[in-house]
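@here heads up, posting the sequence + SMILES for the zinc ion run so it's all in one place. Ping me if the SMILES looks off, I pulled it from an old spreadsheet.
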Amino acid sequence: MPEQPVTPVAEFDPEDEYRPEPPPEPVPPAWMDGSRRIGIHTSIAGSYLNALDSAQRLGCNALQIFSSSPRMWQGGPSRIPDVDAKAFRARREELRLGPLVVHANYLINLAAAQPMLRTRSIQAFHDEIVRAVALGGDFLVVHPGARGESTPERAVATIIESVKQAARRVPLGGLRILIENTAGMGTAMGSRLEEVGEIVAGLDSLPSGACLDTAHLFAAGYDIKSEAGLASTIDVIDRTIGLDRVPVFHVNDSKIPLGGRVDRHEHIGAGKIGAEAFRRILTHPSLGSAPPQGVPGRAFLLETPIDDPGDDRRNVATLWDLAGLKEQAPPAEKGFSMLTAAAKKMAARFSKRKAKTRVAAAGRGGQLSRPTKRLSGKKTKRHRRE
Ligand SMILES: [Zn+2]
Ligand SMILES: [Zn+2]
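bot reply: prediction finished. Complex structure tokens:
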């Protein structure tokens, strides 16, 4: 048998060694520069771009959107066409808006014990993640869900598992998933900050955190209206979730009194929480957007009703004012609102017609005889802010 040729040992030249360039230090986005970020939930009706333009015209430097219809399982395509996503990201860059918060669909119930609903919820939340990433979202906010017959402990475990499954194999990029606290209607999870904290802790393998809604806190029994109540609530937040894990606040006044456990938002200063409490919240050093005590880029986003044209713009201006930053607020476009007078009239006509149909159907013993809460609910007269 011929001898195997001996392969000569290659001379090792250290110059040949593959040395990749060190990865560049990630540059934090402009919205994390320590400045206060204030915005409002804006509508994507017509085009995703409309949401960005509305935010700018309303005097915001941050915003929240839905990425599809929030009350339908299939409210549009589950994926966003590449051209649309690209145009959206470019326009957002141009307008220097951030953070961008995407709010998930309301039908998603990550706590569901019932297998069909749970599967559907995980799939829908997966689609939410994919769309939020496509749009270049910074945060995706989701409600923890309702536990039904399940125990709170069991539900917490289910929620954690559902989020993990939905996020499996999706490169999240810069997206963080935020669990929102709730008012505690029915069997809704997340009205106790301990529960939110447990869920967030269970998700620490993912970029995650919490979004806290002031109206939900108040309705759930956290007295953020008083100075002492705010201080003790901040202590509880820090103990259960960790203040540094709360990069987004939903800033809403509440139609519902302390501990009323119902979720009804009101204009800032016109509800049970009141303007002075919001001034304390917006100027509290632990809730700031700048280090050392604050979280860079922390955003305060409104989800207040728009009963009359201009309510959106006025609520944004109120936040800047209460934060003591009127001078630094980006200019709003005079007279702009997401609700135009014409649209308001049309909505009123539409709901009148709907009510008529209901009455007629009731007369015939029709199916619509049981009025839905939404249609029958007497419109609460708007409290004028002084
Ligand atoms: Zn929410
Ligand atoms: Zn709410």
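MO: The domain at 30-334 is CATH 3.20.20.150 (TIM Barrel).
MO: One more: The first strand starts at residue 37 and ends at 41.
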